[in-house]
Design a protein that fits this description.
The complex is a heteropentamer of chains A (about 290), B (about 350), C (about 260), D (about 325) and E (about 525).
Chain A: H1 9-22, H2 24-41, H3 43-46, H4 81-117, H5 119-133, H6 137-147, H7 152-179, H8 182-190, H9 194-230, H10 242-249, H11 258-285
Chain C: E1 3-12, E2 15-25, E3 30-35, H1 41-48, E4 58-65, E5 68-69, H2 75-84, E6 86-89, H3 103-113, H4 118-131, H5 148-161, E7 166-170, H6 178-195, E8 198-203, H7 206-212, E9 215-220, E10 223-229, H8 230-235, H9 240-248
Parallel strand pairs in C: 3-8, 3-9, 6-7, 7-8
Antiparallel strand pairs in C: 1-2, 1-4, 4-5, 9-10
Chain D: E1 5-14, E2 17-27, E3 32-37, H1 44-51, E4 59-64, E5 67-68, H2 74-83, E6 84-87, H3 101-111, H4 120-130, H5 147-160, E7 165-169, H6 177-194, E8 197-202, H7 205-211, E9 214-219, E10 222-228, H8 229-234, H9 239-247, H10 287-291, E11 297-300, E12 303-305, H11 310-315, H12 318-322
Parallel strand pairs in D: 3-8, 3-9, 6-7, 7-8
Antiparallel strand pairs in D: 1-2, 1-4, 4-5, 9-10, 10-12, 11-12
Classes of the chains: A mainly alpha (about 290), B mainly alpha (about 350), C alpha/beta (about 260), D alpha/beta (about 325), E alpha+beta (about 525).
Chain lengths: ~290, ~350, ~260, ~325, ~525
């Protein structure tokens, strides 16, 4: 099992199918995550009142409890909550995607370089990541988001700034262990140029844990983004961001329970799905790695 | 070992310096003029220029960095725009409540997380394992601010059994005044033997602590499980089995101790991260800690206060990391004796 | 017969990895079990200790210790036997000791587990260590402070102190340097002389087996293809696989009857 | 004439550890083999890596075909990379697990433009055939091959660039004995067919004897003995060589020798003992050994040894001497 | 007697630790006022002009107090008021035996000094004294005001801001502001400052002033606590738990949830307070009157009121009902997106035109304002106007609005206004009169003609109320034309408090103030 990480894709795919069947948590995570993506993509088709996810309001119908017409009820300005929750999937997934993409694009090359070349390059890169890692992601994002004007874009940037060092770390560890393996020495002995070695040998052999981590991190990023919005430092109304919706519903939650419950549950379900998925993937692909965050 | 500790200390110091520089960048490279927000809107150009000078903004940037670092070291962390107090004194009065909350949460998380993780590892692949793993993942997937609201709804609104705001009932200040030694209500009440406040403080502590505990609980349970399972696969475990030790001893004595190490590490890390999570929870429970402070600060665009808290937490994080490394070294003879 | 194995079958899922018809080890005898990687040697060793099931294997057949059947014996009995009557030493002696315990702690705990009083345990540890030519103080060390050879000697001493009647050595010298390997081989030989212990020596190295063992069983893909006195097997192999194996062992020719 | 590979006082350090502590040796043009033997921790692997500039020597010169390897740049370096290749011990780790056999060989061919692009496929087939594999193996991943097959691929990859020197780092010790025999045969054949020079690093004296004309015995990063292989093995001039030789288990009962006992593990390389580094384990150790470092000197024609009593060891029956 | 209460309270607390019911606040003789934003913005009784009124009105007293219910002036520090025929001379007879919390007696000289200082500093609401020419003190208990022009001085002396009588000798004159801002008070009121903790949840604690002239016989709260609870739900929960006695404002939904709670009383009353959207007439796109008018047409006032669920009523002009100059016939802007579009189109904006980006600030923690901001944003989005709405703590919101740097100011500022005394003049002089540096004229509006009309109002009010009424109506119509601001709705005060709080009477002339001394706690 421990060697699965080293196997090429075909074999891993087989291991994956098997694991999916054996691991109900992984399976349910994967299913829900897939559903979320579907919901996000087809949001305009799924949402009963798509305009309510935008700037539309309908104060006459405010604070209606869940009914057949409004399955999740309406909010304080009469917007259909279901529609907003559905569109919220887009926001959350887009933030997660952007943060991951930028973190991986920044972190992985730096980490690979640090791990592969070692020496002072390694020291410099790792000390820099140490500094970033000294801030809990939420807090640094909070500080950054507080000095920037709050918006989804700035929240994304703030989260990405705190996220990339993890990937640098991870990639470094992988690269360092890969760099010590004989086939890398073989490549060097053969005179394969360093950049090519990095791209053709180190990268493909380091990427599995990065993929696992990325799937695990989707949940964390969704939570962080929601938290920032909840604090008023992320998305601004009328963006249908789940954290913001919880924040806006806070004044009503004891009397109009649906305002907080549905968007909050959406955050939980999304984070849970991706965490289950990532956790399961880790069991299958990368069982030796342990918790770090 | 001494060398190891010295090296760790040096590295920790380096990181702290980096942290300071980063916070400087955030605080100063912010759009806007710190001097303008300092003097307020009624200022004349002369006052503004004076503020520029007083705040050292007319100096070169490296010079400013040096002054900033010097200020941090000698305890000048700036003045909060919101409270008009020195940030450091604000932090000193706010931090204990947060620490109280996080420590309570961690105690809950450890008390539940370790047994759950062990149960999960012990019955790997069976129902308890599945259940614990799901609960653990749910814990780390929980939006704490939402959990806080839901618990308030249940325990206060529906059941009416737990209070929802503050550290203890402030009305007790008149009937059972509490001397503030540590600013941690529970500790102070214990020290003073002030039972009414202690009772009230404990009641007030339960909900926020449980909420903050959700995340570390999940992390710790997962960690314990992974760590124990990894240890159980090692050759030395096969050795004690081959020596005829009963499964109980194999698991509890020989499997657990080597697995403890990463648990210590993660607990300290989780401490720092929980401190960050309290930022979401404190505002909801009106808990008078750093979190409410930051929440109020963000609303008043109080950059010095936000940076102060950020810096404090980062330093706490670095220090706790340092402590972890050293404790781990003590736990692991392979490091201790080299 | 000290240890008698009959019709031992070990399988993982629907895959059968061992089909061992017959293998005996008498008291005071060293039997070599030789085979290449994947031949099923190590799982056989675990099966003798009743630990193969813990590794997920299914075991049928018969393993008798002094005529008492081990397969299907209640776990408490097996635990009794493990360590006290059948001991085992491993390929990587350093990592076979728990890294956070002093070696002596494992040592004394094991002795006390099998009924020795504290004083008795210390005394037996002392004499056992003397027997493997190690100072008693070594027990105060952590595993990582021992060299491979020292750790393996401690493991052997543990078997001695436990008064084990059967010792299973699973590739016990393969990870060691030749000079250290020679020491351990010598130690095992002496142990047999002094204690009359029965040793099942599992190795891929025919030369070491040839040097140490009284009898050899050659294993291939889970089956024993040839068994007999060491000299006979090495000099007049019957089975073609044995022949190939022997031929393949690199030999030093220089200085031979120069 | 200059040797193909020439090491002069090479030293490699890792922190406080002198892994290689001043080694000089020559490897002439092939077909020829030089064996480096020693226990784990003797620095033999590091030495091999230093030869290929995979680690930088702290001192001394590694020269290949008369040129200082450390100073090679650009095209010269590339040509050196083509001239000297290495085969590692671990057949699992020698090949990139994410690369098919064909791609691995193709990379070697392309990096050095060994053949025109169009002929790469044909050359890969030829190489595979040369090492006893089939063209069908081109599309396999390493994990789909057996250990022996993997090592053959690794050898083919080394050969692809048509080197003159192959460093063999324990090339067979992870293989089953039957496979080992076949791989050794392959090395023999290749040495003669391709006129290769080998620097063979091994703890296995028998393997060294089979492939090498000359043997160097390394102890704690230092050469303690050096000479023609059959002479070194038949009549060691250093007590350590003697111990090593006698510790090798012999299959033939007739040739079993009485063992020369060395006691204890090798010393900590970070803190080597004074005088002769072998003295704490040496059965012959005298006072002079504890204080004076024995120089590596010619003790017989073509034989170098670093022992104060080398002549005695050579001349007398060592076993008698040590008892 | 205090001792006894303490002992009883302690016993109650110790004996009933399991009960979280509504007990603790009432039994300890403490009145806890739950508010949603910081109380003490300023400490100087002459210049304070904000939320601190909640506590100040309990620490300080004015000469007279206006009873909104009876629409009458009632005596306080002055026992009687007499005015001359021409309305230019006002004589106040002062109560005897009143002392300041500093211990000094409250005399005519002292009262004069306080008002003189307020007038001299001329900050905050000090403008209310603008009519005063001189003050005479013929004897220690008589205060005579000579006015430049007739003015309703009895109303002015009852003002909620800038009318406090306090001891100006509490500290040397120069150090007085500093002394105040170190959390001191120098009033005559029933309560004095006990503890103050800026930024803490329990921000202000007041204790009874033992020598209060009204005496402490009969049931009075002996302590008043102001607790800042940003979230309305938390307020409701604390009220339910009895940790606070009075919730300044809850959401209508929360208030409704108490209707069946037998421990809690709910009150509702129209107020003198309204919510205004101040548009930046000085810089940015809204400097253009046409655009401002378009926005006024673009807002759905009915929708805003509907979403408040009873928390507010439709505004008829700037002046809320119950005050001079209010008229239901003033209708303001209707919600007319077509007209708005047409107006915008004439300036190149609106649907199909350039996108208009506006910034809007509102007060953090105010659910109603949050709603309004959302609705404004939604309404204007349909007109191709993007509104960046930011919730800010009030001091921050105000600082930003007052920025010397015009580019830092908002385009639209949403905030409440209430009169300084029961008269509409407050809106006009503060919000629409030209200001050199902006203070509360956060539209930065300047119209000399309107200034002139505003200046005429006070004397007219004192002499001819009918004419004053007409003037105010004209003013409102004129302001509708210029559209420096739009009133969004008139606020209804909806209080939620423990049943044990007895004697609460809403007095909108002192917005949100609870005169704690007038309450009588249930035993």
């Amino acid at each position: 099992m421990t060697e699965v990480a080293a196997l090429p894709l075909v074999a891993r795919r087989r291991a994956l199918t098997r694991a999916l069947r054996r691991n109900p948590l992984l399976l349910s995570g994967a299913l829900i995550a897939f559903l979320l993506v579907v919901v996000a993509v087809f949001a305009p088709l799924i949402a009963p009142h798509p305009a309510d996810a935008g700037t539309a309001t309908n104060p006459i119908e405010s604070l209606l409890p869940p009914s057949w017409h409004h399955l999740f009820g309406t909010d304080a300005v009469g917007r259909d909550l279901l529609s907003r929750v559905v569109f919220g999937a887009r926001i959350s997934l887009r933030i997660a995607g952007l943060v991951l993409a930028s973190s991986i694009l920044i972190g992985v090359p730096l980490g690979l370089a640090a791990g592969y070349f070692g020496g002072w390059i390694d020291s410099v890169i790792m000390r820099v990541t140490d500094v970033f890692l000294a801030f809990p992601a939420l807090l640094l994002s909070l500080a950054l988001a507080a000095v920037l004007t709050p918006s989804v874009g700035n929240a994304t940037i703030a989260i990405a700034v705190t996220w990339w060092p993890w990937y640098a770390r991870l990639a470094r560890g992988q690269a360092a262990s890969v760099a010590g393996r004989p086939f890398i020495e073989g490549a060097r002995a053969l005179g394969v140029p360093p950049v090519r070695t990095l791209l053709r040998h180190v990268l493909p052999n380091s990427i599995t844990p990065v993929i696992v981590q990325a799937s695990l991190d989707v949940g964390g990023i969704i939570l962080t983004a929601a938290a920032l919005s909840f604090l008023g430092l992320g998305a601004q109304d009328p963006t249908p961001e789940w954290g913001l919706m919880v924040s806006q519903g806070q004044s009503y939650f004891t009397t109009q329970w649906w305002l907080v419950t549905f968007p909050g549950a959406a955050i939980l379900v999304a984070a849970l799905a991706f965490n289950l998925l990532g956790d399961g993937l880790r069991e299958v692909l990368d069982p030796r790695r342990i918790e770090r965050r | 070992m001494t060398l190891y500790v010295a090296k760790r200390l040096a590295l920790g110091l380096l990181v702290v310096v980096g942290v300071l520089i980063l916070t400087f960048v955030i605080a100063r490279v912010v759009p806007g003029d710190p001097a303008a927000s300092w003097v307020g809107p009624h200022a004349t150009p002369q006052e503004l220029a004076k503020a520029h000078h007083d705040l050292g903004l007319d100096k070169s940037v490296p010079r400013q960095v040096v002054d900033y670092l010097h200020g941090i070291v000698v305890g000048d962390w700036g003045v909060s725009i919101h409270t008009k107090h020195s940030v450091l004194s604000d932090l000193a009065s706010r931090a204990p409540a947060s620490v109280e909350l996080v420590v309570a949460a961690l105690l809950i998380a450890l008390a539940l997380g370790i047994p759950l993780g062990l149960a999960s590892a012990r019955w790997r692949g069976r129902a308890p394992d599945l259940l614990v793993r799901f609960a653990a993942v749910a814990g780390v997937s929980m939006p704490v601010f939402w959990l806080a609201l839901i618990l308030q709804l249940i325990f206060f609104q529906k059941l009416g059994i737990l209070p929802v705001a503050g550290q203890y009932d402030p009305n007790l200040d008149y009937t059972s005044p509490l001397a503030a030694h540590t600013h941690m209500a529970v500790v102070d009440a214990l020290v003073e033997g002030n039972w009414p406040v202690l009772w009230s403080a404990l009641q007030h502590l339960v909900l926020p602590a449980v909420v903050v505990a959700a995340y570390p609980l999940g992390v710790i349970a997962r960690m314990v499980r992974a760590s124990v399972l990894e240890t159980l696969g090692e050759e030395h475990v096969r050795m004690v089995r081959a020596l005829g030790f009963p499964e109980r001893a194999v698991f509890w004595r020989f499997g657990l101790k080597p697995a403890l190490n990463p648990i210590v590490a993660i607990t300290a890390l989780v401490f720092a991260y929980s401190l960050a999570n309290t930022f979401l929870v404190e505002a909801i429970f009106d808990w008078p800690g750093l979190g409410s402070y930051v929440a109020a600060s963000t609303q008043s665009l109080d950059t010095p206060a936000i940076i102060g808290v950020t810096l404090l937490i980062a330093i706490v994080y670095v220090v706790s990391n340092l402590i972890v490394d050293i404790v781990q070294a003590f736990l692991d003879p392979r490091i201790r004796l080299s | 017969m000290k240890l008698a194995i009959r019709d031992l079958e070990i399988g993982f899922g629907d895959r059968r990895v061992v089909e061992l018809a017959e293998l005996d080890v008498a008291a005071g005898e060293i039997v070599g079990l030789v085979g290449e990687s994947g031949s099923g040697k190590s799982i056989t060793a675990l099966a003798v200790l009743g630990l193969a099931e813990a590794a997920g294997a299914r075991v049928t057949g018969s393993i008798e210790l002094d005529g008492r059947e081990l397969i299907g014996a209640p776990p408490s009995q097996l635990r009794e036997i493990r360590g006290s009557r059948i001991a085992m030493i491993f390929q990587h002696p350093v990592s076979a000791f728990n890294p956070v315990f002093r070696v002596g702690e494992i040592f004394l705990r094991a002795l006390r587990l099998h009924g020795a009083s504290r004083a008795k345990a210390v005394e037996r540890a002392r004499s056992a260590l003397a027997e493997v030519l190690l100072p008693y103080e070594l027990l105060n060390r952590y595993p990582h402070q021992l060299s491979g050879g020292q750790a393996q000697r401690v493991a052997v001493a543990l078997a001695v102190a436990l008064r084990a009647e059967v010792l299973i050595a699973d590739e016990a010298t393969s990870a060691l340097d030749v000079t250290v390997q020679a020491e351990i081989v010598e130690l095992l030989a002496r142990l047999r002389e002094l204690e009359g212990i029965a040793i099942l020596f599992i190795s891929h190295d025919l030369a070491v087996v040839g040097q140490l063992c009284d009898r050899v069983a050659v294993m291939r893909e889970g089956r024993i293809v040839e068994t007999g006195r060491t000299e006979r097997v090495l000099h007049a192999p019957q089975d073609p696989y044995t022949r190939e194996l022997i031929a393949a062992v690199p030999r030093i020719t220089a200085g031979r009857t120069a | 004439m200059t040797a193909l590979l020439s090491l002069r006082d090479v030293e490699v350090t890792f922190g406080p550890v002198r892994a290689v502590a001043g080694v000089s040796l020559d490897v002439p043009e092939g077909p020829y083999g030089v064996g480096v033997v020693g226990e784990s921790g003797s620095g033999k692997t590091t030495l091999g890596r230093a030869v290929l500039r995979l680690v930088r020597p702290a001192a001394g010169v590694v020269a290949f075909a008369g040129r200082d390897v450390a100073r090679l740049r650009g095209r010269e370096l590339k040509s050196f990379r083509g001239d000297a290749q290495i085969v590692f011990q671990d057949p699992g780790g020698t090949l990139d697990p994410r690369m098919r056999v064909g791609a691995a060989l193709g990379e070697a061919l392309r990096v050095h433009d060994v053949v025109p692009r169009a002929q790469v496929g044909a050359r890969i087939d030829a190489l595979l055939e040369e090492v006893g594999l089939e063209p069908a193996h081109t599309s396999r991943f390493p994990h789909q091959l057996s250990g022996g097959q993997r090592q053959r691929v690794a050898i083919a990859r080394g050969l692809a660039v048509e080197p003159r020197l192959l460093v063999l780092d324990e090339p067979t010790s992870a293989l089953d004995v039957t496979v080992q025999a076949r791989i050794l045969a392959l090395f023999e054949r290749l040495r003669d067919e391709r006129r290769l020079a080998y620097l063979l690093i091994s703890h296995n004296l028998a393997v060294v004897e089979r492939l090498c004309d000359e043997t160097v015995v390394l102890y704690l990063g230092r050469i303690v003995e050096q000479g023609r292989t059959e002479e070194v093995l038949a009549r060691p001039a250093h007590p350590y060589t003697h111990a090593l030789r006698s510790a090798v288990p012999e299959l033939d009962l007739a040739s079993r020798r009485q063992r020369v006992v060395v006691s204890g593990p090798p010393p900590d390389p970070a803190d080597p003992p004074p005088g002769c580094v072998f003295h704490p384990r040496c059965p012959l150790a005298a006072d002079v050994c504890r204080t004076d470092v024995p120089p590596l000197r010619e003790v017989a024609p073509g034989r170098l040894a670093a022992c104060h009593f080398a002549e005695e060891v050579l001349a007398e029956d060592f076993v008698a001497l040590s008892h | 007697m205090h001792r006894l209460v303490l002992v009883a309270a302690a016993a109650a607390v110790v004996l009933t630790p399991f009960a979280l019911g509504a007990t603790s606040a009432a039994t300890t003789g403490t009145f806890t006022y739950g508010t949603y934003t910081d109380v003490m913005v300023g400490w100087d009784p002459s210049t304070s002009y904000s939320n601190e009124i909640l506590a100040m009105q309990n620490m300080y007293e004015t000469l007279t107090r206006y009873d909104s219910r009876a629409k009458k002036i009632k005596p306080l520090l002055a026992t009687s008021v007499a005015k001359s025929k021409d309305g230019k001379t006002w004589t106040f007879t002062l109560r005897k035996g009143v002392t300041f919390h500093t211990g000094r007696p409250m005399t005519a000289q002292a009262a004069k000094a306080a008002i003189a200082r307020t007038m001299k500093l001329h900050q905050g609401a000090a403008y209310i004294w603008d009519a005063v020419k001189s003050i005479a003190t013929p004897n220690p208990s008589t205060l005579v005001f000579h006015l430049k022009y007739p003015a309703p001085l009895d109303l002015i002396s009852s003002a909620d801001y800038a009318a406090y009588i306090y001891d100006t000798k509490a500290a040397p004159a120069k150090q007085l502001p500093k002394w105040f801002s170190a959390a001191h008070d120098a009033g005559t009121g029933p309560y004095t400052i006990d503890k103050y903790a800026k930024g803490q949840e329990v921000e202000v604690r007041l204790k009874s002033y033992p020598k209060y002239w009204g005496g402490w016989n009969g049931g009075h709260y002996t302590r008043v606590v102001y607790r800042v609870i940003p979230q309305a739900t938390t307020s409701a929960q604390l009220l339910r738990a009895g940790e606070i006695s009075f919730a300044e404002r809850l959401t209508p939904q929360l208030r409704d949830s108490f209707k069946s709670d037998k421990n809690v009383t709910v009150t509702s009353q129209t107020s003198f307070q309204n919510l205004l959207a101040m548009m930046n007439t000085a810089s940015g796109p809204l400097a253009d009157k046409t655009v401002r008018r378009a926005i006024a047409y673009g807002l759905d006032y009915q929708g805003i009121v509907a979403s408040l669920h009873g928390g507010g009523t439709l505004s008829h002009g700037v002046i809320p009902p119950g005050l001079l100059g209010h008229s239901d016939s003033i209708t303001g802007y209707p919600h007319d997106p077509k007209k708005a579009t047409a107006l915008l189109k004439s300036k190149g904006f609106g649907p199909g035109g350039k996108k208009l980006n506006l910034t809007l600030t509102y007060t953090q923690g105010d659910t109603d304002q949050q709603l309004v901001a959302t609705l404004i944003k939604s309404n204007l989005a349909g007109l191709n106007i993007n509104v960046d709405a930011r919730p800010l703590a009030w001091p921050t919101q105000w600082d930003k609005a007052k920025s010397a740097d015009k580019s830092k100011r908002q385009d639209i500022l949403v905030f409440y206004w209430w009169p300084d005394y029961a008269d509409p003049y407050s809106w006009f002089i503060n919000l629409y009169h030209t200001e050199k540096t902006p203070y509360f004229n956060l539209s930065y509006f300047s119209n000399p003609r309107i200034d002139k009309m505003i200046d005429k109002a006070p004397s007219l009010t004192a002499t001819n109320r009918a004419k004053a009424d007409a003037l105010y109506q004209t003013l409102q119509k004129q302001l509708l034309q210029d559209a420096p601001s739009v009133p969004l709705y008139d606020q209804a005060y909806q209080r939620t408090m423990l049943k044990s709080v007895g004697g609460f009477v809403e007095n909108p002339a002192y917005p949100n103030v609870v005169f704690a001394y007038d309450l009588h706690p249930a035993a």
